[in-house]
Amino acid sequence: MSELARITRNPEVMGGKPCVRGTRVTVGTILGLLADGHEEKEILEAYPYLELEDVRAALSYAARRLEEFEVEIVPA
Q1: Sheet containing 19-20: order of strands
Q2: What whole-number distance in Å separates Cα of residue 56 and Cα of residue 2?
Q3: pLDDT in tens, the chain (76 residues)
Q4: What is the 3-state secondary structure (H, E, C) of the chain?
Q5: Global confidence as pTM
Q6: 3-67 carries CATH number 1.20.58.100
Q7: pLDDT of residue 38
Q8: Nearest Cα to 25, choosing from 57, 59, 50?
Q9: PANTHER family annotated for this entry (predicted)?
Q10: How far apart are CA 14 and CA 1, in angstroms?
């Protein structure tokens, strides 16, 4: 699975914000938790349905968006 295939966007889920596939966990939520000092392990404990690769995909997606690369994500 491509790293970015883990990130999806659906206008009917979380207002169309990019989310980890099949969940309502937004990229912004993951970034906010990391920015607040939470470790990946803590995030995975709080959201047991996520995988480490999901957290890393969220970081990768955000980094690419900040660099203004056009990133196509899979519709949910």
Answers
A1: 19-20, 7-9, 74-75
A2: 12
A3: 577 899 999 999 999 999 999 999 999 999 999 999 999 999 999 999 999 999 999 999 999 888 875 667 767 6
A4: CCHHHHEEECCCCHHHCCEECCCCCEHHHHHHHHHCCCCHHHHHHHCCCCCHHHHHHHHHHHHHHHCCCCCCCEEC
A5: 0.84
A6: no
A7: 98
A8: 50
A9: SSL5025 PROTEIN, SSR2962 PROTEIN
A10: 23
Which residue ranges make up each domain of the chain?
3-67
Question: What is the DSSP pairing of strand 74-75 with strand 7-9?
Answer: parallel
* Tokens of residue 6, six digits: 């883990």
Amino acid at 13: V
Pairing of strands 7-9, 19-20: antiparallel
